Amino acid sequence: MPTDPITPLGSPERPVRVAVVGAGPAGFFTAEALLRREAPVFDVDVLERLPTPFGLVRAGVAPDHQQIKNVHKVFEKTAAHDRFRFLGNVRVGRDLSVRELAAHYDQVVFAIGSASDRRLGIPGEELTGSHAATAFVGWYNTHPDFVDFPFELGHERAVVVGAGNVAMDVARVLLRDAEELAVTDLGAHALEALRRSRVREVVLLVRRGPGQAAFDVRELRDVAELKGVRVSIDRAQLEAERPRLDELEPVAKKRVEYMLELANAAPKPAERTLRLEFLASPVELLGDERGHVRAVRVERNRLERTAAGELRAVGSGDAFEIEAGAVFRSVGYRGAPLDGAPFDPRAGVIDNRDGRVVDGGSIVTGQYAVGWCRRGATGVIGTNKADAQAVADRMIEDVPRLRPADEARRARAAVDRLLSDRDVRVTTFADWSALDAVEIASGRERGKIREKFRSVDAMMNHLLRSVGGVGAED
Length: 474
Ligand code: NAP
Hints:
CATH superfamily of the largest domain: FAD/NAD(P)-binding domain
CATH class of the largest domain: Alpha Beta
Bound molecules: NADP nicotinamide-adenine-dinucleotide phosphate
Helix content: 25-40%
Distance between the termini: 22 Å
């Protein structure tokens, strides 16, 4: 029965109905921040295009960083709340439009992350063997979109462009002894390819200097401490930084100090090497007769201070070549537009002002953005907790000014009916728990943490064959 519309919105009898689009960390932290409140009362549906939740916690965090994935326990607590629902396998923009969401919910929060990657914009980028790091990350994490990607690791040297934590993840996975990864949740397909890999050296091209790298010192330490792997850095280049150490921010100073330690240490016996090339930018990828990458043409840079005080890399004109059979561009993620949501193409985010969605300069009442699709692809998983809290605070503040959705439409059953009329097979959190159990059992058989389903079809077929079918009640 529809509730009497004069019952105040946000009361226990008439909770604010919220759709969160995207079940990654930003989406879950937002749900948590809303559900924790005693007043106003919220009822949260988290919609996700995959049948499985957790976004980059499942498909981004590297398999040898299991402790970071433990945050799923926090998300499971949120999911156990009786005013929370997970609606998996629902693609907003195809199965439901943004306009329909706005009609069925009082508030809509986009937490869709940054679905594409930044490109280098240099000749040869389209050659085979030139990859987006994001595709490699999706591949080793068995993301259904990337699992069949043919990564050739048959050459001795790979180049990674960029100096962020993703670049370090890629380098570490390429260099680590595959047997150490065999016990993790690395996909069986990736394990097989990494076991066969002939990569012995990964060259990280960093366009600016040691003081401006973006990776965390602990990520470099993780690589330096790997069995059979050494880090090679030009000592003279680093020593040149020593007199300027005190001008650096504490985090950057620590990073350079650690690199100085590495550069001055006795060489570690190793079969594989991570080489850090500072002040170096790729200007062209060179191909062989098959159209496959064979080398990278690299230009030396110098640093120039901009009017705003930033240090910028400027090409010096000196160039050299590095032979390599694979190139991974890891120069940041970028948001992709979602049909029906205003997009800021310059920033690559959903157009917003402090989390409130903006269209043509005006606030769109009841619509919000959170996480990477709000602020761009920066920060670690925990950063999204504070971000989510800030956006949730704005949502709470806005409740008295909302135009509530039509009473009949804002019922849970109305959305369910719309989706079932369209033959969308929605997965619940109980369905995810069933899939989770299968993955863990299948991993156990192989002596590893988990073996993930490789495709959405495989997940859906499993659920259809199981007792409850798809849509088992939570
Ligand atoms: P990022 O931290 O933004 O790093 C991007 C890197 O690419 C920077 O070093 C940047 O150099 C460089 N770059 C950009 N354009 C370039 C170009 N045209 N040519 C050469 N280099 C270029 O991005 P990310 O590594 O993708 O990581 C995204 C976020 O996820 C980060 O906040 C990261 O900390 C987080 N993350 C964390 C972990 C972890 O905690 N373990 C793991 C993965 C990701 P400039 O500085 O010169 O622009």
